[in-house]
Amino acid sequence: MGLKDSSGHTNSATARGAERESVSRLRRRPNARVLIIGGGINGVGTFRDLALQGVDVALVERGDYCQGASGASSHMIHGGIRYLENGEFRLVRESVVERNRLLRIAPHYVKPLQTTIPIFSTFSGVLAAPLRFLTHKQQGKTKERGAFLIKLGLSLYDSFSRDGGSVPRHQFRTRQKALAELPMLHPGIKYTATYFDASVHNPERLTLDVLQDGEKAGGRASNYLSLASVGSNADGSSTATLRDELTGKEFTFTADVIVNTTGAWVDLTNQAMGAPTTFMGGTKGSHIVLDHPGLLTACKGREIFFEHTDGRIVLIYPMGDRVLVGTTDVDADMAEDAVCTDEEIDYFFELIGHVFPDITVNRGQIVYTFSGVRPLPRHDATQPGFVSRDYRIERRAPEAGGSGAVVLSLVGGKWTTFRALAEHLADDVLAELGTERKISTAKLAIGGGSAFPESEAGIQKWIKAHMTATRDADRTAGLLTRYGTRAEEVISYLDAGPDRLLRSTRELSVRELHFMAAHEQIGHLVDVLIRRTSLAFRGLVTGELLNEVAEALAGPLGWDAAGVAAEINHAQEVLKRYHGVEVHSLVA
User: Fold this and answer.
1) How far apart are CA 28 and CA 62, in angstroms?
2) What's the per-residue H, E or C state across 477-545?
3) Taking the model in full, what pTM does it have?
């Protein structure tokens, strides 16, 4: 029986060849100064930071990288304007600074995002806001936030952006001008407010870039490698038993410091290490992705970000030729799978109608759904929407007598601040090790963001320079979008041997899949569909695609015929069970 990974997916071993190199590197030298457990963006960011300081660091992830909450985000890099109402001014300031920073150091994936708030009243919520601020609870009947409150919040938000700000200040529009810009909006609006945040269309690939930076700096990491147990050693270290989720084989690994970055599963991980905690109280957030040209046109390229009738802040977000709609915020039951329910889908349809009353949506237009559990602190009576999005680091000292490693557990954390959070967590680790920071990551380009073209003209010049007789502009542009400037490394690999595009998509070739297998730690077929590409997100997975990708990966990953069949079945199960996508294979 397989173990559930960090998204609830069940991993089952298939027929494989030699041991994965990522596992072999850990098993051949089964020790490190620091062992990080959890391969979401915060764990991976900490891994990169420590490796850059010259620390001997290892990371293990029981599923795939960015498979849990990090891969179930709203795809935004944002300052968190709504956190102002919670009084989390430090977090908002840090978030805005980090948003601006990521626009500079990860320009291949992080892009400016124009955001518009439809506003239906002028002074509504003015009296209720101070009580929400003080109690972190909704007081009585929900009162929407009016123009006065939103103007105040955006003015404060802009003030936080002055330090290294790279986005324009907010603007208000009256009803007449607002409807001229966005004619499909509800005619009952009184104003709109427009400001800029940022988006990340490929969070999984950004996580992979951060990971590879850490590997290039000397760190070792493996996905599909879980923590089974931890024991204490007399020399102050700990011995962890690690289990390869793809083969079932186990081996031991020692470390002086253990860092628990398993998100909503922090308490369960600590329990596995023999020290149960009650730090976490995550909430579930779901999204749907729509193929809806009418809604896409209505948004005019902008994110529509607003307060629904229940007071929940929600969004409608155009991404390429698809539209992302989210998100819910309900207490999570960690014993249940995180999936988007029918009730949540109804909620999404309602919120679309709230701002675009003439647009109808049906379930047939949904191409993908996803859910995740936010790694929030335990919040008891606090309502989910008011739970702090800030983070803290909990330290567990060695056992009496000094045996066993120090364990640092990360409680909370959000996508936008991952670099600053990783720096903070790495500094705590460095203090435990008695060493100092050698380099800051504040201005260090991430992966394929290095030397990325600064303008559209520069992008077109890059594309033209890397085209060939067999690789047209669209294919070349696709590689730049997927890898950033690291596409040069991919192109060199593609050009070193015979290659062909898949029949089922012009976005992938056989040789590119071989590159992914060799350099991007592919464990399952579904990893390619969901996290190495956005094919599943956009509803582009077909039976033919499943078969072609599985066949292309079979040789490099050592899958025999039974293994190929198992991987296709596994991909079908994951897509249907967790993402509402039913794909029929072409083979029995």
Assistant:
1) 19
2) HHHHHHHHHHHHHHHHHHCCCCCCECCCCCCCEHHHHHHHHHHCCCCCHHHHHHHHCCCCCCCCCCHHH
3) 0.92
Q: Which position has the higher pLDDT, 137 or 68?
A: 68
Judging by beta carbons within 10 Å of its beta carbon (0-12, 13-18, 19+), is residue 524 exposed, middle or buried?
buried
Question: Please, which residues have CB within 8 angstroms of residue 216's CB and are 6 or more apart in sequence?
Answer: none
The DSSP element (H or E) to which 411 belongs, if any, is strand 406-412
For tokens 């009585």, name the residue.
Answer: 140
Would you place residue 141 in the very low, low, confident or very high pLDDT band (cuts 50, 70, 90)? low
Place of tokens 């009576």: 381
**Contact criterion met (CB below 8 Å) for 10 and 3:** yes
pLDDT over threshold 50, residue 7: no
CA angle at residue 414 from 410 to 418, to 5 degrees? 75
**What is the secondary structure of 86-133 as a DSSP string?**
GT-HHHHHHHHHHHHHHHHH-TTTEEEEEEEEEE--SSTTTTHHHHHH
In degrees and rounded to multiples of 5, residue 46 shows phi and psi of: -65, -40
- Judged on CB neighbours under 10 Å (0-12, 13-18, 19+), 48 is buried
Give residues with Cβ within 8 angstroms of 130, minimum separation 6: none
410 φ, ψ (degrees, to nearest 5)? -90, 125
End-to-end, the C-alpha distance of the chain in Å comes to 23
